[in-house]
Amino acid sequence: MKKTILMLLVVGASISAKAQFEGSKQIFESPKLKTEKGNHKLVAILPFATKISYKKQPRNFNAEANRDQEKTMSKSIQSSMYTFLLRKASDYTVEFQDPDKTNILLKKAGIQDKLDEVTKDEVAKILGVDAILGGNFETEQTKSEAGAIASAVLFGGFGGKTGTGTLTLTLNNGTTGDLLWRFFKTMNDSITSSTDDLVEHMMRKVSRNFPYAK
Q1: What is the residue range of the signal peptide feature (predicted)?
Q2: How far apart are CA 63 and CA 14, in angstroms?
Q3: Would you say domain 2-209 falls under CATH 3.40.50.10610?
């Protein structure tokens, strides 16, 4: 009887965790999307604007280290996005520029850390691409990693939630800079979630609506 109750609790926890991870999503498509995307052959993926905050700031919080972590995650999400799209290249009508090349060109142009000061059409011209895929990720940490691990052990790996996040993916036309498509999703983070997991989960949800899907 006790084993049955424990099993039900674990199953219930896993279902609840999955439902929380799903979060809400919103999709926007410009009336110009269908016409413009037919002209696109090469698309660049920009580093994601990333913000990491804390519901209760840790005692040993270091602002500089936090900024470094944001920069690392920014490029990590960019790389994970490229890896995912490259893995499924045959499913899309366009090619995607290698993020290493993208970042080198941005650095040479002196705008790697100033993307919010440059228009998307200007960025596209610098990169030599037809469209720009970018976005932002914001996460608020709500539980310490130690606490998350304790929960994961208690619930058999389903209780490792450490925070909440919002992930936004945008597509801008290279010639005009116009926003053609936008995908927004909220989700919960966990100690087992990597940027690869994050992108994989998001792209599974957006696959039917991704502009370049065949």
Answers
A1: 1-19
A2: 35
A3: yes
In the chain, DSSP finds a helix count (H) and a strand count (E) of 7, 7
CA distance 44 to 110: 17
Q: How far is Cα of residue 190 from the mean position of the Cα atoms in its chain?
A: 15
- Judge whether residue 16 has pLDDT over 60: no
Burial (CB count <10 Å: 0-12, 13-18, 19+), residue 107: exposed
Task: Check residue 206 and give its pLDDT.
Answer: 80
Q: Given a cut of 90, is residue 22 above it in pLDDT?
A: no
Give Cα separations from 204 to 50, 85, 169, 194 (angstroms): 21, 11, 13, 15
The pTM score is: 0.77
Structure tokens that stand for 95 in this block: 């090619």
